[in-house]
Amino acid sequence: MANITFIKEDKLVIAADGANLREKAIQNQIDIYTLRGKLTNCGGYGQCATCVVEIVEGLENLSPKTDFEVKKLKKKPDNYRLACQTTVNGDVTVKTKP
């Protein structure tokens, strides 16, 4: 089991290892999208890059970046991830809408 701490929302979510970060956020009423993202998101298929989150702690407990993430986040800090492309395998602390 993994603990996902969402800083801005002051919320702790417990997830099974291998859980998708975007799905766990949505299941727990955590808004990960900016206004633009709400209007244009692809629904978690990894095509729009609007579900960007900042990983504050536990980067080593996440799945490796996908090729799409590497391409879309190349100008962002290394600790930015796309929630829809990220699976959690241990404790992690997340900042939404960085």
Q: Could you explain the architecture of this structure?
A:
It is a single chain. With 98 residues, the protein is an alpha+beta fold. It has helices at residues 21-27, 35-40, 67-72; strands at residues 2-6, 11-15, 19-20, 52-57, 80-82, 87-88, 92-96. It has a five-stranded mixed β-sheet with strand order 2-1-7-4-5, covered by helices on one side. Strands 3-6 form a two-stranded antiparallel sheet. The longest helix has 7 residues, at 21-27. It starts with a strand and ends with a strand.
Give the overall shape. Answer: globular
Structural class: alpha+beta
Strand arrangement across the biggest beta sheet: 2-1-7-4-5
Low-confidence stretches: none
Report Rg.
Answer: 12 Å
Total strands: the figure is 7
Instruction: Give the biggest beta sheet.
Output: 5 strands, mixed
- Helix-residue proportion: 10-25%
Share of residues in strands: 25-35%
- What's the N-to-C terminus distance? 26 Å
Mean pLDDT: 95
The SSE string, one letter per element, is EEEHHEHEEE
Q: Helical stretch count?
A: 3
What characteristics describe this protein?
98 residues; alpha+beta
Itemize the secondary structure elements and their pairings.
Blueprint: E1 2-6, E2 11-15, E3 19-20, H1 21-27, H2 35-40, E4 52-57, H3 67-72, E5 80-82, E6 87-88, E7 92-96
Parallel strand pairs: 1-7
Antiparallel strand pairs: 1-2, 3-6, 4-5, 4-7
